[in-house]
Amino acid sequence: MDAEQIRTAYLQLMTERGHSLIERASLVPRDDPTTLFTGSGMQPLLPYLLGEPHPAGTRLADVQPCVRAQDIEEVGDNRHTTFFEMLGNWSLGDYFKSQQIPMFWHFLVDVVGLDPERIYVSVFAGDDEHGIPRDEESAEIWTRLFAQAGISHETVDLITEEHGNEVGNQGARIAFYQDKNWWSRGGGPDAMLVGDPGGPDSEVFYYFPQVTHDTAYGRFPHQNSDGGQYLEIGNSVFMQYRRMPNEQTDGSPAEATFAELPNRNVDYGGGLERIAAAAMDSPDVFRISLLWPIVEELERLSGKSYDEQTHAMRIVTDHVRGAVFLAADGVTPSNKEAGYVMRRLLRRAIRFAAELGIENNVLTPLVDIVAGLYADAYPEVGDRRETITKVLQKEERAFRRTLNKGLRELRHIAKEQRPITGGDFFILNDTFGFPVELSTEEAQRQGLTLAEDWRAEFDARREEQRQRSQAATKLGVHD
Ligand code: ATP
Ligand code: MG
Ligand code: MG
Ligand code: MG
């Protein structure tokens, strides 16, 4: 199955299992000042997970486009992209672990056709401090599923974090984890907001024996680095607890206490790109049917190969795809909030394309490819293609006018052999249109040292400018 088929098959399975398919949310959440982007399928559903009845019922599913600007530094590895699609299903006080885990297994093994021998899972190890028990129930369900698939009990070890690294790669399949396998807003049990729901999380990984660049982190249950042999493909959160109000009245910090929720919810999220990569036995998500044609276009435009230019091509591919979806959802490049992130993606894509030798008009041909890949599943991307192209072209033209001058300015500073200051970054931003993160990256690439207080100086210069322009507006002066 390719990525498109997996997306369709997922929604079909969810329909068969009684789920209402709900509309995806915009990438830019409205009425939520706490976050710039929709970063998971769960995020728009939080009110319902907290107890509000959902008009579509108690079983919901969708495929939610997500943007995680916080993952931008990871982009370039084999598994993280700033934009991705999350397969999601939710039970609002309906089914729980005994249906969710086998349903996910069925999807992975029978529908997508993954090899059960290569599936590894982690479950919550409990939290004595807060009286939250180990998630034995999930572990038992997984144990049974592995056994039914003929994976012998000897290889199904239950391991804990302390000795996880030693037994990793030695047949352990189910890891009990404490810190990583709890989900709630704000982090672990202690960071949970009073009244919020949370609960144990069970993560699923796919094993790639062909990955040879192995590190300590390549071992199960450590998973999260480039080159690791275990790729997280999805997880189910069992929202079972509610953080209770603190009882201390003398002002000293109270121990967090928990009560069972009246509704036990399931929140499942799976990475479409990663499941598609597993389905084609590729540890590299950029090889899937939704990303590879973009890479191929870059190979054509640059005359270079992906094997030689993996890092830069991954960045350009991801950033352009993300910007196309942001444009489809009405975002335009600007100097603040979502627009700033979009600008950063585009300018970074243009900069990395230049490194590939593409000095002109890189965005337009890539928009065409992205729009072609997504027009069926997301008609808004096809329908708005012309507008999207215009928005991206305009940004490319604006940045190209000053890109080379900005780079020259940087080389100039490098020649002077002095640290680069906040004032320099301000000029690069204000005059040459370099988002500050891009110029720090560029400065490091040129071997420059950053002045210790560069950040403070940069912020001060920007604030100064803001006040100047406010004063000018008040006086009716426009320049
Ligand atoms: P990771 O640990 O690999 O960063 P995560 O635990 O942060 O992933 P979740 O919040 O659990 O991710 O999101 C659900 C699923 O979405 C993950 O299991 C993974 O398959 C996918 N996913 C998460 N982040 C990304 C990303 N940046 N790019 C592609 N897929 C992702
Ligand atoms: Mg992550
Ligand atoms: Mg994870
Ligand atoms: Mg996860």
UniProtKB/TrEMBL annotation:
Q: In the UniProt record, does the keyword Nucleotide-binding occur?
A: yes
Entry coiled-coil feature ranges: none
Provide the E.C. number(s) assigned to this enzyme. 6.1.1.7
**Which residue numbers delimit the Alanyl-transfer RNA synthetases family profile domain?**
1-479
Q: Which UniProt keywords apply?
A: Aminoacyl-tRNA synthetase, ATP-binding, Ligase, Nucleotide-binding, Protein biosynthesis, RNA-binding, tRNA-binding
Annotated Gene Ontology cellular components are:
cytoplasm
CDD domains in UniProt? AlaRS_core (cd00673)
- Could you give a GO molecular-function term held by this entry? alanine-tRNA ligase activity
Sequence similarity: Belongs to the class-II aminoacyl-tRNA synthetase family.
This chain belongs to the protein called alanine--tRNA ligase
Say which species the protein is native to.
Gordonia insulae
Q: Which gene encodes it?
A: alaS_2
